[in-house]
Recover the amino acids of this structure.
């Protein structure tokens, strides 16, 4: 004799009303995303650098340094998926990155000028071109004063 099939009926659990918030948080803790120190070193150490400039008659140096960072070539060494626009945005807003890029420009200006240049004014521009981040740094500086 064939067995009768039992009909299964699923019952959804009873919905509970939303909990009422009686206490609210006093502090908000935003998440701040930054490039890691290792990522900054990797990006800037792999940059192609091109510098130009000259010294005027008063001993001031005027020039520019261009950095090209090909982020796609670094993808095998990075844990996260590449978002070149996001990397450029983080670089633009990070003082550590700006300081390192200005130091690179000052170093190249020193080589070009033939004396140790202290960068006084330096305009820094970043833009994205495909998988590359292009950085232009205008350098204006004077010879560093020698310590006695």
């Amino acid at each position: 004799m064939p067995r009768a099939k039992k009909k299964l009926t699923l019952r959804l659990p009873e919905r509970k009303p939303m909990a009422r918030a009686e206490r609210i948080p006093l502090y908000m803790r935003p998440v701040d995303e930054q490039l890691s120190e290792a990522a900054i070193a990797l990006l800037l150490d792999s940059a192609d650098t091109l510098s130009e400039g000259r010294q005027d008659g008063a001993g001031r140096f005027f020039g520019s340094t261009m950095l090209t960072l090909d982020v796609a070539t670094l993808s095998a060494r990075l844990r996260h998926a590449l978002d070149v626009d996001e990397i450029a945005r983080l670089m633009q807003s990070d003082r550590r990155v700006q300081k390192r890029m200005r130091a690179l420009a000052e170093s190249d200006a020193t080589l070009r000028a033939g004396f140790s240049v202290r960068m006084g004014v330096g305009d820094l521009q970043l833009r994205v071109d495909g998988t590359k981040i292009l950085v232009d740094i205008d350098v204006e500086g004077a010879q560093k004063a020698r310590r006695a």
The CA atoms of residues 51 and 102 lie 12 Å apart.
